[in-house]
C-alpha cells in the first residue's frame, strides 16, 4: 500500500488507459489504486510487481497463468508512466518477468496482446525476445474504435534461463 500515491500519480493518464483494456480505469482514483494493490498482494507466489525507479512505483507488470487446457500458458500485461517511455525500462522489466515466470510457474509459453495501434509495445516485446504469433483484424473495441489485436509469445524452449 506504500506505493498507492505514486501509483495514482503515474497511472492517472489517458494515454496509458487508451493502450490497455477497459479494466484499467481513467481517471485512476484512490479507490482504483487500493483495489488494484489489494488484488496484486493476494497471490502466492506473487504475479504482479511494481516497476520501481529510484524508489518510486512508475509502472506495473504482471504474469497471469491460465487454467484448464491453457494451463501451460501465462499472459503478461504491463504499463509504464509516460514520463519514463523510451528509456529501455519496460524492455528490462519484461525480460525479468519472463525469467521469473518460467522459473516460478509450470508454464511453457508467455504471451502478450498489444493493440495493433500500439507500435511501441510491439517493439518492446520484440526487443525482449518475443515473436509475433498472430494478428486478428478489428476484433477489439476501445473508445468506440475497432482495433487489431496482436499476439506475441515467447517459449521456454527458446528462452535462456
From TrEMBL:
PROSITE patterns: GNAT. The lineage of its organism: Bacteria, Pseudomonadati, Bacteroidota, Bacteroidia, Bacteroidales. One of its GO terms (molecular function) is acyltransferase activity, transferring groups other than amino-acyl groups. CDD domains: NAT_SF. Residues 3-157 form the N-acetyltransferase domain. Keywords: Transferase. The keyword Transferase applies. This is Protein N-acetyltransferase, RimJ/RimL family. It comes from the Bacteria. SUPFAM superfamilies: Acyl-CoA N-acyltransferases (Nat).
